């Protein structure tokens, strides 16, 4: 039955957005140890809601503890034990149903307004831990292809089987599809090209079906691409947005899946879902945030787990240990001359401050006006030259520096820019 999509929010519904954005915040940044019995029940409920068999559940003290699982096993043994990463999750399944009931423009607005960014930022913990095993992930990717292909086949099985049966030789192709991922020896990609794609290519009406299979494989066709895909699955369709659409907008939904998803978020820490095994990581024992709720620590870890695994961060940006160990007042401006990462240079600039930078890097004075000076730092430490307006306090000699656009040519022009277009002489008269 055709149903009109929701196109607008009422004033009352709009007022509830920040409430639902913060509702799940305490779960996302919880430092309480998980209860393994309740976590096990939550994971089993999720797999059941997705039509999957109960997995073996492995509890990790931190994301880094995954090295204990992968360190002593071959890729083939790991795949047999873990299974392939699940290509879908309850967030995605619930989201697809909700999205069909909401106008595209409103859906995009909700995607911008509702998700709690902490969930997205937490993903770099998994990426950091998994990224250390990039070589192994590359080997696992080859082994995982069969399981991933099987998942795609199962997701579209009924429709695909009907299409294939319409063509001569369709039934053998179906049998080939069912058995392909069980074969060993020759790389799966060559088996597929010779035995699967080539016969299908002779059927013009099968091109769309072929793309349904090949495109997802191409999108995650590498080790780091797989890490990215896992993260996207974990973060897709935030819990806050799903809750808002169900509780506030009254969208129809699958009750079993929604209850299972809520249980997973409430009872588990970080979760990595695979076909045979679900990895459940305990919550960090410490999470430090700044005033904007970004992961932030000064001279100490912003995130720390019970086994000692930790991550340094400054205003939401992950730091290498050489910076994170030191308080920002001990950072040195000369580091900017050798740091190649633009984001880290930006963080160093923020932490060190322009006042120290212009003193330590011997900024060149271009012009002056009263107690103000226009400075330029010639060293290539940012994506564009750094021009600073420096003010020296007459009573304390404290130097305050503010960055100004590189197209200003005089100190007075720079002051006018800082004063939102008001000339300093005019500003002094008004004052």
Low-confidence stretches: 183-192, 219-237
- Give, in spatial order, the strands making up the sheet with the most strands: 4-5-6-7
Strand content: 5-15%
- The tally of structural domains comes to 3
Gist?
The chain is α+β, with helices and mostly antiparallel strands and 431 residues long. It contains 22 helices and eleven strands. The chain has three domains: 11-281, no CATH class; 286-330, no CATH class; 333-430, no CATH class.
How would you describe this structure to a colleague?
With 431 residues, this protein is of the alpha+beta class. It folds into three domains: 11-281, no CATH class; 286-330, no CATH class; 333-430, no CATH class. It contains 22 helices and eleven strands. The chain has a four-stranded antiparallel β-sheet. Strand 2 and strand 3 form a beta hairpin. Helix 6 packs across helix 10. The longest helix is centred in the middle third of the chain and has 22 residues, at 134-155. The radius of gyration is 28 Å and the shape is globular. 28% of the residues are buried. The model is unreliable at 183-192 and 219-237 (pLDDT under 50).
């Amino acid at each position: 039955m055709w149903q009109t999509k929701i196109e607008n929010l009422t004033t009352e519904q709009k007022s509830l957005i920040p409430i639902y954005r913060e509702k799940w915040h305490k779960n996302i940044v919880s430092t309480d140890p998980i209860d393994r019995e309740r976590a096990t029940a939550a994971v089993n409920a999720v797999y059941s809601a997705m039509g999957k068999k109960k997995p073996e559940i492995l509890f990790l003290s931190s994301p880094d503890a995954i090295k204990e699982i992968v360190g002593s096993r071959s890729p083939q043994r790991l795949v047999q034990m873990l299974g392939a990463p699940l290509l879908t999750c309850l967030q995605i399944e619930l989201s697809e149903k909700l999205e069909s009931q909401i106008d595209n423009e409103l859906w995009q607005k909700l995607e911008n307004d509702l998700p709690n960014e902490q969930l997205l930022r937490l993903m770099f913990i998994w990426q950091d831990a998994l990224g250390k095993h990039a070589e192994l992930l590359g080997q696992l990717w080859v082994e995982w292809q069969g399981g991933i292909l099987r998942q795609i086949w199962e997701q579209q099985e009924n429709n695909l089987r009907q299409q294939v049966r319409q063509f001569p030789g369709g039934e053998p192709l179906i049998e080939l599809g069912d058995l392909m991922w069980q074969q060993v020896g020759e790389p799966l990609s060559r088996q597929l090209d010779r035995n699967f794609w080539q016969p299908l290519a002779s059927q013009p009406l099968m091109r769309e079906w072929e793309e349904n299979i090949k495109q997802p494989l191409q999108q995650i066709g590498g080790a780091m691409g797989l890490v990215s895909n896992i993260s996207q699955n974990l973060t897709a369709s935030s819990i806050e947005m799903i809750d808002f659409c169900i509780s506030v907008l009254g969208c129809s939904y699958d009750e079993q899946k929604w209850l299972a998803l809520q249980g997973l978020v409430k009872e588990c820490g970080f979760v990595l879902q695979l076909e045979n095994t679900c990895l459940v990581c305990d919550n960090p024992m410490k999470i430090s945030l700044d005033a904007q709720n970004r992961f932030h620590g000064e001279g100490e870890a912003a995130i720390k787990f019970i086994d000692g695994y930790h991550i340094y961060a400054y205003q939401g940006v992950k730091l290498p240990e050489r910076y994170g160990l030191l308080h920002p007042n001990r950072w040195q401006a000369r580091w900017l001359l050798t740091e190649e990462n633009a984001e880290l240079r930006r963080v160093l600039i923020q932490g060190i401050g322009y006042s120290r930078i212009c003193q330590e890097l011997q900024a060149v004075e271009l012009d002056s006006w009263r107690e103000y000076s226009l400075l330029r730092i010639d060293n290539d430490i940012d994506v564009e030259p750094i021009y600073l307006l420096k003010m020296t306090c007459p009573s304390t000699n404290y130097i305050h520096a503010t960055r100004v656009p590189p197209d200003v040519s005089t100190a007075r022009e720079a002051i006018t820019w800082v004063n939102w277009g008001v000339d300093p002489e005019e500003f002094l008269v008004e004052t």
